[in-house]
Fold these 2 entries.
Entry 1:
Amino acid sequence: MVDTAQRSTAPKKTLGSTKPAVDTGPVMVAGHPGSPTVNVAALNRQLLGTWADVRVRARELTARPELHRIEGQSMEEHRVRVLAQLKILADNGHVHRAFPVDLGGSDDNGGNIAGFEELVTADPSLQIKAGVQWGLFGGAVLHLGTKRHHDAYLPGIMSLEVPGVFAMTETGHGSDVASIGTTATYDPDAQEFVINTPFRAAWKDYLGNAAKDGVAAVLFAQLISQGVNHGVHAFWVQLRDENGDFLPGIGGEDDGLKGGLNGIDNGRLHFDQLRIPRTNLLNRYGDVAEDGSYSSAISSPGRRFFTMLGTLVQGRVSLDGAAAQASAMALTIAITYGSERRQFTAGNDTDEEVILDYQRHQRRLLPRLATTYAQTFAHDQFLVKFDQVFSGKADTDDDRQDLETLAAALKPLSTWHALDTLQEAREACGGAGFLAENRLVGLRADLDVYATFEGDNNVLLQLVAKRLLTDYSRKFAHAGTGALARYVVAQAADRAYHGSGLRTLAQTVADFGSTARSVGALRETNVQRELLTDRVETMIGEIAAELRPAGKLPAKAAAALFNAHQDALIEAARSHGELLQWEAFTQAVESTQDEGTKQVLTWLRDLFGLGLVEKNLAWYLINGRLSAQRAQSVTAYIDRIIARLRPHALDLVDAFGYRQEHLRSNIASGAEKERQDEARAYYREQRASGQAPAAEKAPKKK
Amino acid sequence: MVDTAQRSTAPKKTLGSTKPAVDTGPVMVAGHPGSPTVNVAALNRQLLGTWADVRVRARELTARPELHRIEGQSMEEHRVRVLAQLKILADNGHVHRAFPVDLGGSDDNGGNIAGFEELVTADPSLQIKAGVQWGLFGGAVLHLGTKRHHDAYLPGIMSLEVPGVFAMTETGHGSDVASIGTTATYDPDAQEFVINTPFRAAWKDYLGNAAKDGVAAVLFAQLISQGVNHGVHAFWVQLRDENGDFLPGIGGEDDGLKGGLNGIDNGRLHFDQLRIPRTNLLNRYGDVAEDGSYSSAISSPGRRFFTMLGTLVQGRVSLDGAAAQASAMALTIAITYGSERRQFTAGNDTDEEVILDYQRHQRRLLPRLATTYAQTFAHDQFLVKFDQVFSGKADTDDDRQDLETLAAALKPLSTWHALDTLQEAREACGGAGFLAENRLVGLRADLDVYATFEGDNNVLLQLVAKRLLTDYSRKFAHAGTGALARYVVAQAADRAYHGSGLRTLAQTVADFGSTARSVGALRETNVQRELLTDRVETMIGEIAAELRPAGKLPAKAAAALFNAHQDALIEAARSHGELLQWEAFTQAVESTQDEGTKQVLTWLRDLFGLGLVEKNLAWYLINGRLSAQRAQSVTAYIDRIIARLRPHALDLVDAFGYRQEHLRSNIASGAEKERQDEARAYYREQRASGQAPAAEKAPKKK
């Protein structure tokens, strides 16, 4: 037996260490002559981003066992535990950064989200329940209410004295919030709003805190006064009495067990002619006077609606960051295990091969690592933008629209990527990956709903596409329809002519038909930028041209024309989001100081960028952007980059900076290495002693 | 309120009905003039396949509430329930078809698997625990043991008097079974085998029935006698006494909570010099005499090993079928819900659009429906092959190898597809899809491990690739290396020449550069076959040429060369599996009698085939199989097929024949349609009465 007692109790990952804490064994030749070295501590700091200090402090908090998920708890036990954990967060002040200074907060929007995102490592249920309480419920009071609401409600919200519900979604309306059925009809005689649920589909649904803990709610309803519907507004509604029973006029039920996040008591609410005071309207963007007359500083109902909803963008911001963290945890677990686990001898006499040395295993994990890096860097820029808008530093209409578009572009990509990565990591760890003790299945189950809540991913990408179309049409607005049509025609003719060659790139890159030369070109930052940018612009340009007749069609026919391009639009939006990530990654590479780290990050960025080109290779070929020969070299070059990155894989996940207290994954604890070492020592000793049984001789071949 | 009481209790899906039980509403114009009609009853029978009667009877069984999963049970409760359900199956005889007639079975291998697969609708835990007991544990006694073992053990196994463990996998060895560490050393003095676990990595792990219920085990260990290791053999080992306590020399622990399948008590076992009688060796393929001399009818240790493992192929067969069923259930739920759910008005004045009428929604669900059909038809052929081999009707070495290859090609594709489809279905149902009451999340959690147990999907595909390489090299064996080299060179030259045109298809299809003409060609069965077949053959041919030097290299260098092509090999194997599915689908279409059904199935098959071409479009372009113009028409044509299939979507899922007792999904019960109807009626009445509040007037545009 190898003495492994000392290793087994020590946490494996050490934050800020410049060397991986794991013995990487003979195949991990990161330091062989000519190979660059990653400065793990510096890279860790870079990955932590603008609010690195907040994150480091948050990770001390999330390392505390009392905040951790206990796998296997019943839904009821889990709910009780998470509510108690919320009290720890409230007492600690961790969740108060975004609230006003005069109420005990620190007006720090970016830092607040950074700290909030880190909670995902403790328990995604804790994160999302905290998000419901302080982000959605508290955020709605803060952003949609006025001073009287702040003074009356925020202290109780911040302290968790008043757990609350963000009652927006209904059974019948999720993505289309403008069409919710709940009504708030003003009664001037009583100076009250009458809240009513007209039919079953208008029940509020999927609401965190609604099944059990919610004492009050910010309720969204159609505001009707003097016979006019002024659209969706938010109201403060008391839900339960001191005993936790619904007040008269309110009913509800439990959503019950879910695919994950079962520490949160999601539920349904319905209202039967419930009366609330006029002043319960959160009236920052619209108000009703005692006589029932409506007023708003924003005259357009549509713009008012989007302004109100826009204040809630922080949910999407934080999901983007949390999803990137979940991907990073999954890859830390799978790459650590893959660097220790051995299976099949692969040409060796005795020793089995480390599974991360198999090409397929690398192909499964390293491109996902590249994407996770891209998303981490993109998220930090996104968070800076969010902070600028919400702090008022840069808060024009354009800034808010850009922030919305960023949110709609990035949140879908990172949440889908997290699910994909958690699943691939789980499969890459085999049966061990399926055990709850190794965390991957639980994280995946919890993260699942991130793809559809706070904006369904497909719906969000469609919003991005519409914004791209608008920008595109503005670009050509001065040229008139004639010029646009000419532009599109010219483009098509150009493509037909250069059908087997290059179009846009013809000016910047010469294709000599040599694979080596092609590979060199694809490695250039400007070539990647051109390829990725051109694709988005061309796709949007083509769709815009095809949608052009819609303006002259009846509404139904125009909708049908739009619908016939919906899939292409969403694909274009996705490519736009990927381009944003690539740009963020490239900026991060450019700002990296350490030369060795910069080299490895450049490879990783190339892997991300060329991975996007490979994924859409048919498009580049069909549209004449890449010749067949050059296209073929993309995959060959990706294989080469992956082989180059392999020795740095552990450094690259160690740089995420998670400790075993965050990972809490048995297979990432060094236990697998202990087992492998013990088994290898056993066979080594047996061979040395001459006690090994002989292998049965195979019969001679005929 | 609309009176919906009657509908809400009636099961939605009616087996054998030629009309969908759901009112399809005005957009579902399946019967519009010129549109074909699907004969749902006949198609249902066709999908049920060769053992349709067994499946129909099994579905009566799986409709029984006492066999159903209760969502939200604790692991302990779930385990108790599933064990009790196993007793129902044993008493019912449902699981005895594969056992010998003289022991109360019916020697019906195909029917046994068909019936077993259907259990997935009741609870995947029930299915897999039944599979452990009667498929793996019982199957090992049946196939690896001899008469004395059959007589002694099979009755107790069949009746569940002796719940058992299939103890093959170890913590340290999953895919590489040949390298397990557990030893069974023969002691001629005592005429006993000594079972021993030499180190922690050799603990048996992930074993169903091991944590709690297993009384005995079929244990796999290295058989060592007279100083020679004869490789992995199976032994009968008693594990626990009447009190459920481990016998002396045996230890173990619980694997605890898993990502799914928590009705099964997976656990670990280890052995400390445990002595068992010599006759406990399951000695069909290898025996040890009293004096310790070893004998086997199969002289090659390698072939013996694969023969022994080959008897256990039924696990892969049944997972392939169960996965196809899970996909079918997911699509039945999502397409039913998508046909009732409405969101956004999309150009209508008042009525919201049914979400399945959105192009993106169709693109998400209908190609997956086509793949599920292909997998269902391919599975039936696979099951027929299995039945022929195991009944001895066609049981040559080649047959067994073909069966192994089929299993290794199909099981990965269908299990991955099930996970992908369950997830897409879950997201397509939004928040409702995340509730346990709608089944999708639970099924996905349970099916997760299907991708890595009974053969890791990536490892299986690599086996397929090796078989394809072997077949390929045999094909050219007579030609010698010279001819092969010339072949490869000729191929490369050909590609360079026809780089922007067609190669193989040049003979069969003229490309006139017209999109219409191209679309017509792609629709032809022979063109699809040619495109799909050519890809597999070319990929394998190219890899074979690149691997050719391996024969002359040292083992380590040869392994490195192979490893550098591992990813490409696995992709080729996947394409081979997809081709098999396409062929099975095509045969099914050809054997369809009803003309309307045949037309719709042809579209669905085209969607599957062209979807494969679209997925690999870059390959077809790079290799000159499709021109850029023709390639572009692939996506356009897929869009057209999807629009054509849309009106038949409900018929196509109804043809799977699941009733609400099988689906048990609230959102597929008609409840959503009730809610939508009620809401629409409310607004209709409000408009008719003149009581609707007016919309706030938008301000005039500047």
Entry 2:
Amino acid sequence: MTQSSRSDRFGGLELRHDREWNYELDRITEAIDSREADTVGLQFPEGLKRTAPRVAADIEGAANRDITTVISGDPCYGSCDIDMALARRADLFVHFGHLPMSENDGILYVPLFSNVDPLPILEEALEELAPPEELPDVGLVTTAQHINMFDEMKATVEAAGYTVHTRRGAERLSQEGHVLGCNYASADLPVEHVVYLGGGKFHPVGLAMEHPDKHVLIADPVNNLVTDADADPFIKQRYGDIHRAMDAESWGIIFSTKIGQERWELAQEIVTNNEAAHLISTDEVTPDRLRNFDFDAYVNTACPRVTTDDAARFDEPLLTPGEYRIAIGEKPLDELAFDTYHGTW
Amino acid sequence: MTQSSRSDRFGGLELRHDREWNYELDRITEAIDSREADTVGLQFPEGLKRTAPRVAADIEGAANRDITTVISGDPCYGSCDIDMALARRADLFVHFGHLPMSENDGILYVPLFSNVDPLPILEEALEELAPPEELPDVGLVTTAQHINMFDEMKATVEAAGYTVHTRRGAERLSQEGHVLGCNYASADLPVEHVVYLGGGKFHPVGLAMEHPDKHVLIADPVNNLVTDADADPFIKQRYGDIHRAMDAESWGIIFSTKIGQERWELAQEIVTNNEAAHLISTDEVTPDRLRNFDFDAYVNTACPRVTTDDAARFDEPLLTPGEYRIAIGEKPLDELAFDTYHGTW
């Protein structure tokens, strides 16, 4: 089939030339050729799934071979969350929208970079800080969507007279300055103020939970807003859930089978030391999946953001492994900390 | 840990001696011994998940070895729906509540048989039929929950003067007389009347969809009711969905990764012959999983009962493969048929 016939069918958009997202058709077709792929798996995060039929049609049209594309229908919330069933079935597997957490021969990562200029809002954010003569040191982090502009961001902070501090904090992170919802080690910096450049509250709230001693300033180029991150409502809810779980007489310890969220040893260690605890293995951690069980409380060894962000949706208290140790009296209450996720796969 | 300490913690029930469900602790502990299993995976259908902590505690208490049990948290709707991620991780995998669809060395099936006497309601049902002198031939089918009493049921029908017809219709079915939600080949019998013995409407409605020429009489020992199965509301909805899908300009063809629901060739054949169709690979087929895509209509090659029973919950029309052929004009409307699922795995 031809590119144009496909495009007509999907509303006439020439997505191949869509300036909003360059999804690197050339790199994909080259990989199809070099692997002699017949079946090509495509995985999109939730926010990009709507484009999946058009991207699949474009790839089929551009390919030099007769291929079958297969779109992953499983939920996808990050590069920790690779559809391995489809990756195993496909000759080539393309994961869109995230940076690699772990390099793998069979997986091609096609990131999605924002086309919004991050520098004006960054300049605006710096004006909120004390002048560089008083507080010269500023940390800088961003998300995968803006990481392609990280050098320019650093130059902007320096041009304003500050000393910019950055690092690649962990193997789980793709590069210097990069943060994930589960890992903010790139902000482990000798600074009081960290500027987070990116859209939304999800990442900066995690950053503030992980680094409660730091001031987290949000420069949001998507909503064109400068604000401070506030983790207090989340932390209060964590204390609430810990207290509710202190009376639990039975515990479900959740182990996730998602390839980048497996903490089997941690989960197993908990049940080994608590006779009232049982392991539950699942891919998704949702209220529906737990509703039919009869445990008093749960520990989620998978994605910490399900625990901290979705807690109110669960009927029973859902704790991180660290919070669990507080609930059973192994750690004092003031050792509450963000459940940083380490390692790759 | 001891059996009694576990039982105390889970409410003092001695489930090992629970007369409502003999879950064959001896057979499980023997399998643990013979495999020298350290990790034992346990999978329960939704209706039995509430008992999972107690069953897991009983197994740990009864085992002669120090074992770790792991309960599957994924949804489970039948013996087509084995948690293979857990089965691969565990040394022994126990699937509760269903009969084997396919024998597998690593999987132990522990069925759940009803303790309700099926014979009184069966006798009552037979009184609804014409007397044996007028219509001597009666078919008989039942579900996994009552199949242990199948010989007694057959004898009851014969004692009433009828000639009872039974068969094991397909490899997918465990034995003579057994029906599944997706396969009613055990009712492919030279009779006008089929007596279905079992609780609820799910199976007899499927049976009536598969065999629209037969009278399906329900003998429900759980609700103590005799009724006729009526598939008309479902069939009307199928026609409605087919008509809605006739205008579709883009199709999502759903392929399930559940081991007993994989119809890869069928799904691939559809996309090969329709340029407006794309494959979607997923484990669960739910409205949430499809909501972020932008297809006009979907074909579900996985569990047919999701299509026929949950249709109203989906935003776009969801068709069986046979209904799809009607919608695209390859088959006449009057060839609408139940999407019988064949084969094992």
